[in-house]
Amino acid sequence: NAGVTQTPKFQVLKTGQSMTLQCAQDMNHEYMSWYRQDPGMGLRLIHYSVGAGITDQGEVPNGYNVSRSTTEDFPLRLLSAAPSQTSVYFCASSPGSTGELFFGEGSRLTVL
Amino acid sequence: RKEVEQDPGPFNVPEGATVAFNCTYSNSASQSFFWYRQDCRKEPKLLMSVYSSGNEDGRFTAQLNRASQYISLLIRDSKLSDSATYLCVVLDGNQFYFGTGTSLTVIP
A19: burial class by Cβ within 10 Å (0-12, 13-18, 19+)? Predict the structure, then answer.
């Protein structure tokens, strides 16, 4: 059972580079979201989507873009990486009705 | 003011002890509440949802007090395997808000 799959698991970038974190789910969940987790800060919502073609900003959206062209995929793009974006990123999906979030294994990003 | 606040701990308890975590939330209109467990360097996983009437799952009991806007988690007969970080989560509209987590270490 794949669930929520994130790639890559680890990435090192230089300041100013761009990259995309991939997220895919095979549970037909309408709701998908991206979080970053930093020490002492908890998980903070970056962007979320309630269905294909619909995205919205969360608590910390600056420097990130998302799109939702299919129900399955929800990529997160870093436009011009900054050291402040060094973090662990989690993608999560939810069927919506129960509210339970299913998480991917996380992507550790370091920006030098 | 943060949406969800938790005591970060750490809580260090002996095996067999009972331990309780509390969490407060700021928006009285929040509609759903959860406790998640996160092991070191792993993704969070749902421990249990929290209902107004209170709910129990084995050694774990969760309670919600809407009037005071707090959520609690009680763990009885602690096991070594309960060592983890426990995250309080609140659903407000379409956004999930996470507490910073409470660290628990169960000592042999």
Answer: middle
